[in-house]
Structure formats: structure tokens, C-alpha cells
Amino acid sequence: MVRIVRTPEGNVVVDETGKRNGRGAYLCRQKICWDAALTRGHLERALRVALSDETLNQLRAYADTLPQQLTSISNDET
After folding, report:
1. Which three-class secondary structure string do you get for 41-62?
2. Which one, of 29, 36, 30, 38, lies nearest residue 57 by Cα?
3. Which of 1, 47, 64, 77 could crosslink 6 through cysteines, CB 3.0-4.6 Å?
4. What percent of the chain has pLDDT over 90?
């Protein structure tokens, strides 16, 4: 999971450490989850903030670094 936080100053940033102060929301490490959250406004609702175009672009750029979907590995495949 990746934490996204709205800082006390009102900025929305990816919080890889999960320790920054502010209101947080969690998304899985799959691009498909991020696309849905950003497109449907789930993240704005969870953080109680309107995301600027600049912030949306930054979050989409981060999402582009993630795999489209994670594949699970069963015990038989290891």
C-alpha cells in the first residue's frame, strides 16, 4: 500500500514512509487502482480536498511508475 497525505499546509503528496503528518489515504501499488481513484474522485473525497491540475499530474506521473496490475504467486509456483 502507498499512503497519500494532505499535509497541514494543504499540499497533497505521496508518502512512501507512511509517517508524514496530515490526513492520509491508502492506495494499492497498482496503476489500475490509482487511475480509478484519480478519475472517480475517490482520493479527493478521502483527503477532503480539491486536487489541482498540477497535483493530479504529479500523482499520475507517480502512478505511471507502478505496474498495471500485480500478479499473485501461489505456493505451487515458488
Report:
1. CHHHHHHCCCCCHHHHHHHHHH
2. 38
3. 47
4. 86
Task: Give residue 45's Cα distance to chain centre.
Answer: 13
| pTM to 2 decimal places | 0.83
Q: What is the pLDDT of residue 69?
A: 82
Q: Any idea what DSSP says for residue 20?
A: -
**Could you tell me the domains of the chain?**
2-70 (3.30.1230.10)
The alpha-carbon radius of gyration of the chain (Å, integer) is 14
Residue type at 76 in one-letter notation: D
Alpha carbon separation from 30 to 21, 25, 60, 78 (Å, rounded):
24, 15, 12, 22
